[in-house]
Amino acid sequence: MTGIFNPPHRTDRVNLWDAFLFAKKTCDKGILSQVFDILRLRLRRGRLGVHEYFRYCLFDDERYDFTRKAQFIGWRRMQHIHNRYIAREWLGIAHDTLVANSLFSALGLRQPKLYGLYHPSRAFGALPALRSAADLGQFLREGIEYPFFSKPVWGEKSYGAANVEALDRDRDELRLANGERLSVERFVDQVVAQRGTPAGGLTHDMGYLFMERLFSHPAIAEICGNTLSTLRIVVLATLNGPEIYRAIWKIPVPGNLADNFWLKGNMIAPVDLETGRVGEAIAEHGPRRQVVTQHPQSHKPLTDIVLPDWPQARDSCLRAAAAVPGLRLQGWDVALTTEGPVVIEVNPVGDVRLPQLASREGYCNERMCRFLSEIGIVG
Questions:
Q1: Does any domain span residue 261?
Q2: Residue 227's closest CA among 263, 200, 202, 186?
Q3: For residue range 133-170, what is the model confidence (pLDDT) as tens digits?
Q4: What's the DSSP call for residue 243?
Q5: Does residue 198 sit in the same domain as residue 265?
Q6: Is 297 domain-assigned?
Q7: pTM of this prediction?
Q8: Range of 343's domain?
Q9: Is residue 202 domain-shared with residue 302, that is, in the same domain?
């Protein structure tokens, strides 16, 4: 089945020849000028690659002078920061959902209820431990509450996740949130098969987790439908405490498993840090980028609305961030739910693409550069 354990993702790359021609046509920027731009930016602090140059539309000289272009950073630069300046002993909190759940619960932050863990030996207190395929099948038929959400304990980009509405006992089938159906036996086979594989979003066998399905705040659900919508909140762990740097609203379309921007159709928009007001939403990136003023399914406006519970979401994020100072750059996912903001997870460093795409501004502005210098990141 497609869209369950390996959902369709947008390509992260662009057709370079088409991109050169697009920039020449739309911005009257010659190909040699673009190449010169790309080479200069590759040698700058941000170490941008050619695909990143087009992803952020940096060929647009009217919007970006070279100083602003040089504020964008690429994956090479972020890998350098991650590898050299993130305290390794803190990474377990970011990569292990069970460890993170314990920490957030201790902080008094609302967490999804956990239903069960599939792993041959790992245990987590009183959480039901499913040791075999037979255990997992019995759990799905008799031991779990519906609806539920499930995912690898450590995963990324929604690989290995499933969003299940109900069990059809007569047919022994699971009904998924996107309308598809899958036999219990086939579901179990896929969970067992993807353990420990890159296709399942895992590089370590940390287990497969079943949990409560969260539902968006009514004001969000009216726009986005039944797929949970979250915020990505970027936090700087400064020497004086955590500080929110940027916030992005991840806007899903119905039928998608999650709100990841890299899932086809999903959108992102910047969020004002003081008011929670949503800025200009976009779909796609690079030459395919489109400004979106209303949701394509609900037709509700996306721009210039105020997100519900924004002050509470911001405060919850700062409370959680203060508990993990060893993660100097943090990307928090916070859901705006029917029961208030729920901290989902923290990403070490976080994906710099989202903040740069949503805001159309480079990551390394004056504030970020001061912070990087403060924690010893230079060059």
A1: yes
A2: 263
A3: 999 999 999 999 999 999 988 876 677 889 999 999 99
A4: E
A5: no
A6: yes
A7: 0.91
A8: 216-374
A9: no
